[in-house]
Fold:
Amino acid sequence: MHGYMGKILRVDLSSGKISSEEIDPQMAQEYIGGAGFATKIIYDEVPAETEPLGGDNRLVFMTGPVTGTRFPTSGRFVVAAKSPLTGMLTTAASSGFWGVEMKKTGYDGIVFQGKADKPVYLEIVDDQVRLQDATDVWGKDAYETQAILRERTGKKRVRVASIGPSGEKQALLACVMNDAGRAAGRGGLGAVMGAMNLKAVVVSGSKKIRVAADDFLKLMTKEVIKGIQADPFTGFFTKWGTAFSMDMGWAAGDVPIKNWRQGLWEEGCVKLGGAKMAETILKPHTAACHNCPIRCARWVHIKEGKYSYEGPGPEYETLGAFGTMLMIDDLEAVSWIGEECNKFGIDTISTGATIAWAMEAYEKGAITKEDTGGIELTWGNVDAVVQVVEQMGRVEGFGALLAQGTRRASQKVGKGSEEYAIQVKGLEVPMHDPRCYHSMAVNYATGPRGACHVQGGPYVVEIGVITPEAGLTHRQGRFDKKKKGLAAKAHQDLSAVYNSTAVCMFAAMGIPPSHFGNLLAITTGIPHNAQTVLQAGERIVNLQRAFACREGITRKDDTLPKRLVTPLSEGGSAGKAADLEYQLKEYYELREWDENGIPKKEKLEALGLTQAAKDLHT
Structure:
């Protein structure tokens, strides 16, 4: 097969059996790869009500047909499982170089099942696949693990995806880390890895990735790079990283402040922004992902003081989660806290959001100093946050409660604290406010993995990115009432395509579906056009929804915390809030889901999802 290596590796950790299977060409046509393949495998193999941290779950690592090619931003891969945080099928994408090296071993992906009787790691060096003893690296952080296993393999080009202590102890906020600070970050997939006693996946490959029409891919690549370099929006990412969203977002009201309660904090946002980072701690670097002309990754050097370190710098989400959400305006401290999370292997968005919940609970008396073990969990208290992150990363003390996320923690604490647990279906809301960009309201409420800004980012329609082939023909006003359901549906479908092809959304969102069809055709040799591409995205999203419905998710769960539909009194979106009920009605009609949010039988059958139709409509 072109584009694909043609094989998926199967690893049964309980028995130690390792096997491989060929990729079904029909699955390649209908699900593309990456998130699509992972979704299909998990839906078919993980029955309803499966315990996410039990032996019947599946943990899938999957590349896409474009991964490792000359196409820009093609370093991505996906990790997927039934999430222990939400109970839904969750795919999480990461970048860097691990996916490319994985594919060069000759496999497009790996499916893990079962549980090893002791800590192990999987080592793949071209045709040699072995389970190795990981006892000596169990307990070490993600960075230490990567360094030790790279050296042990003895190859020049080795990449490691691993968990840290939080994953080992099955913290529900645990990530899978690779290439230093890259993360498959949301939904607790690191906990699934830890429950399997799987510490790491080590890959080193030398096989060539062959495409169907390399001359055409070369031409397309040149044109896409020209477009990226000419686009001012992507230029912001190059100059300031994703942190520029802090500089540009606060005035519009996009940046969450003090656990989403405050609409304006100009001074703090400026101190945390990409411009300030560039002026102070940013270091010239070569930290870009594979074949990436955008180069949004940051490398920072804090030369002295208690937060001194050199390494990956914080993304916007981390700056929001540990900065504005907690009322901390110390850029060096926030950077260092984010780096500690990387080492522990714990999701910065959910970690910061959970601490923000705890701070509000402490402020309002639902949590006391006795509960925290003496930690004064007050707004802006950096030392307290450092202590709590350490505990969360090690799943110890008060941090053991917070490592379960806001939904479970608030349910255990009670006393009204559930009201300020800002999550959807168990997943903490990322750092973009749906009161600022109203399309994000229905997007968060219906997102395939809960509240998410990267598996559906319709706010780009409100800042001027239109996609006529997907029905998005004009820039929407931020506070428009109509068409938000359309924007959410279209961008959820498109995001599924991006994560299945395995390219970065920062490059992909400017490429129309018909051009994606061309990209897939010249890479794989499988004919595609705008219609087949959009239908593939729709198929993947509907299958993810069918999994959620099979687990009991319905209309009652497609909602937002009251706070996010209550207008703020200040800031760039003061007095504004989305009409979620209107948006949901529009969205369900476009999706062809019934009034309970369940995909209709006819829709599922039209997408070829016959088993899902039987599961939901017996």
